[in-house]
Design goal:
The protein is an alpha+beta fold and 214 residues long. The protein folds into 2 domains: 9-63; 72-212, 3-Layer(aba) Sandwich (Protein Transport Mog1p, Chain A). It has helices spanning 19-63, 72-83, 134-140, 192-203, and strands spanning 9-10, 15-16, 97-106, 109-117, 123-130, 148-152, 155-161, 173-178, 182-188, 211-212. The strands form 2 sheets. Strands 3, 4, 5, 6, 7, 8, 9 and 10 form an 8-stranded antiparallel beta sheet that branches. The longest helix is centred in the N-terminal third of the chain and has 45 residues, at 19-63. The chain is elongated and about 110 Å long.
Length: 214
C-alpha cells in the first residue's frame, strides 16, 4: 500500500496547508496569471493599433501630391478684365512659388492679392487696393507708423520696418506706393533685397508720375 504523500509545510504558516488554503492559493495564482495576460494583451493591442495608424499616415503622406503652384499671371489677366483696370503681376525668379492669387473685397475696397514664397523661405504679399482709404491701409498693415521714404527704381515708397514686433504678425516689413488708380502694398518676412526685386518689377509697369503713399 502506497503511503500518503506528505503535505508541504508553508513557511509563512509553519505547518502544512489545509485543503481550503491550498485551493485559495491556487485560485489567487491563477487570478494573477490572468491579470498579467490581460495586461500583456492590452499592450500588444496598443502597439498593433499604433503600427496601423503610423502605416496609414505614411501612406497618406506619400500619396498626397504637393499643391500645384498658382498661375498668378493668368489669374491677373482675369482680374484685370473683371475690374476694367490693370492689376500688378510682377515677374519674379523662377525658383519662387505662388501660394495664392485672387481678387477680393475688403470693407468696400477691391483687392488684388498675390502671395510669393521666395527660395530663402521668405514671404511677400502683394496687395493692390482700388478706391482705397486711410482706414483700409491702417487695417491691412495693423497700425503702421513711422514711415520712411525710399526710392526704388525711380518710384517713391513708404517703408515700414517693424521687424521683431510680434503684434504685426507677418507684416514685419512693408512698402507702400500710390499708383494712378490704386494703392500698392508689399508686406512680409522676406529680405530687403527680395522686396526691392519685387518693387523694381512693379516700377517697370507704373507710370512715371506715381507718387509716394501718405
Amino acid at each position: 500500500m502506497t503511503p500518503p504523500a506528505e503535505k508541504r509545510v508553508v513557511a509563512e504558516l509553519g505547518r502544512p496547508e489545509t485543503p481550503e488554503e491550498t485551493a485559495a492559493r491556487v485560485a489567487e495564482s491563477r487570478k494573477r496569471r490572468r491579470a498579467n495576460q490581460s495586461t500583456k494583451n492590452l499592450v500588444l493591442s496598443l502597439i498593433a493599433s499604433l503600427g496601423i495608424v503610423l502605416f496609414l499616415i505614411i501612406v497618406v503622406v506619400q500619396q498626397s501630391p504637393p499643391a500645384p503652384p498658382v498661375d498668378y499671371q493668368a489669374t491677373a489677366a482675369e482680374a484685370s478684365a473683371a475690374l476694367g483696370a490693370d492689376v500688378q503681376a510682377p515677374v519674379v525668379p523662377p525658383t519662387w512659388t505662388t501660394n495664392r492669387a485672387d481678387l477680393t473685397a475688403n470693407g468696400g475696397v477691391r483687392e488684388w492679392y498675390v502671395g510669393f514664397l521666395t527660395d530663402t523661405d521668405g514671404f511677400i504679399a502683394l496687395v493692390q487696393g482700388f478706391e482705397t482709404n486711410p482706414t483700409w491701409l491702417d487695417e491691412l498693415l495693423r497700425g503702421p507708423t513711422g514711415a520712411e521714404r525710399v526710392e526704388i527704381a525711380g518710384i517713391e515708397w513708404s517703408l515700414y520696418d517693424r521687424r521683431g514686433v510680434d503684434a504685426v504678425g507677418n507684416r514685419q516689413y512693408a512698402l507702400v506706393t500710390e499708383a494712378t488708380e490704386s494703392t500698392i502694398v508689399l508686406y512680409g518676412t522676406a529680405s530687403e533685397d527680395e522686396f526691392a526685386l519685387v518693387a523694381t518689377a512693379i516700377a517697370a509697369d507704373l507710370p512715371a508720375e506715381t507718387e509716394n503713399a501718405p
